[in-house]
Amino acid sequence: VFRLHNNEKLTPITLNAITAATKVGGEVSCLVAGTNCAKVAEEISKVKGVKKVLVAQHDSYKGGLPEELTPLILQTQKQFNFTHICAGASAFGKNLLPRVAAKLDVAPVSDIIEVKSSDTFVRTIYAGNALSTVKCNEPIKVFSIRGTCFEAAPTEGGGAASEEVSASSPVGISEWLKQSLTKSDRPELTSAKVVVSGGRGLKSGENFKLLYDLADKMNAAVGASRAAVDAGYVPNDMQVGQTGKIVAPELYIAVGISGAIQHLAGMKDSKTIVAINKDPEAPIFQVADYGLVADLFKVSLWD
């Protein structure tokens, strides 16, 4: 299992990936690559289900460039003869694992939602409207997991041993410069318990302030439909849907979102869905637990 981190702490989807890996059977090893990532390695060693932590440190791993990490994963797989390689289906995992699979000359299985056995997985198709059971006959199984479909592994109760592994030779075709993250006191979108999302019905980026104010009162994250992103109302890192982020919060509030099939694919597993739309025929109401047919600018929700 490859671990995503920022040299200080794990990303939440890492714990979901560990749970998925334990369902495959056999011992689970975690590969941690970075610079000065001893703190992360120690954190992983305490996670229940992990038997061994492999640590590789080199300046070339700064920023987690996939072209630098792929040779390391291939080298480690060969050294320890791993039969399965997995990671979370985040933007990072979706970038990294296809490279690894291509180098191994195997077909990857992406965004799985269930592990049936060591060679059989379940994933969604047709924007989440059907399930496909995939039997993978490749000698090395490479797969990514949808974090919202697996419980996070307990961060206590483990006692994995750590082992240093040799860093791979730097590829040097690209260089990590810097990363500028949007500063916000709101929860991260994919891990928030409450998400408030807006669509084209908000009519402008300025009107998203209504959602920001509501989200701040509820300690919620703010998302958006692709229509709102394409219209330039909000940046694309807020997009929820098939081509955006997959969320499954305790509460999802959809405001001014019609409910295109691509958007529903990214949020339909939310525990409770509330929809506000002036069109009573909007598809979003078909998946909503509670619906309000009204002009979003006239409801008292914002008072």
From TrEMBL:
Named cofactor requirement(s): FAD
A biological process from GO: fatty acid beta-oxidation using acyl-CoA dehydrogenase
Binding site for FAD: 200, 225-226, 239-243, 256-263, 277
Annotated keywords: Electron transport, FAD, Flavoprotein, Mitochondrion, Transport
Binding note for cofactor: Binds 1 FAD per dimer.
GO cellular component labels: electron transfer flavoprotein complex; mitochondrial matrix
SUPFAM superfamilies: Adenine nucleotide alpha hydrolases-like, DHS-like NAD/FAD-binding domain
GO molecular function, one term: electron transfer activity
Domain Electron transfer flavoprotein alpha/beta-subunit N-terminal: 1-180
One Pfam family it belongs to: ETF_alpha
Main subcellular location: mitochondrion
The keyword Electron transport is annotated on this UniProt entry: yes
Localization, UniProt: Mitochondrion matrix
Keyword Coiled coil: no
Task of the protein: The electron transfer flavoprotein serves as a specific electron acceptor for several dehydrogenases, including five acyl-CoA dehydrogenases, glutaryl-CoA and sarcosine dehydrogenase. It transfers the electrons to the main mitochondrial respiratory chain via ETF-ubiquinone oxidoreductase (ETF dehydrogenase). Heterodimeric electron transfer flavoprotein that accepts electrons from several mitochondrial dehydrogenases, including acyl-CoA dehydrogenases, glutaryl-CoA and sarcosine dehydrogenase. It transfers the electrons to the main mitochondrial respiratory chain via ETF-ubiquinone oxidoreductase (ETF dehydrogenase). Required for normal mitochondrial fatty acid oxidation and normal amino acid metabolism.
Family per record: Belongs to the ETF alpha-subunit/FixB family.
Subunit organization: Heterodimer of an alpha and a beta subunit.
Official protein name in the record: Electron transfer flavoprotein subunit alpha
Species: Astatotilapia calliptera
Gene: ETFA
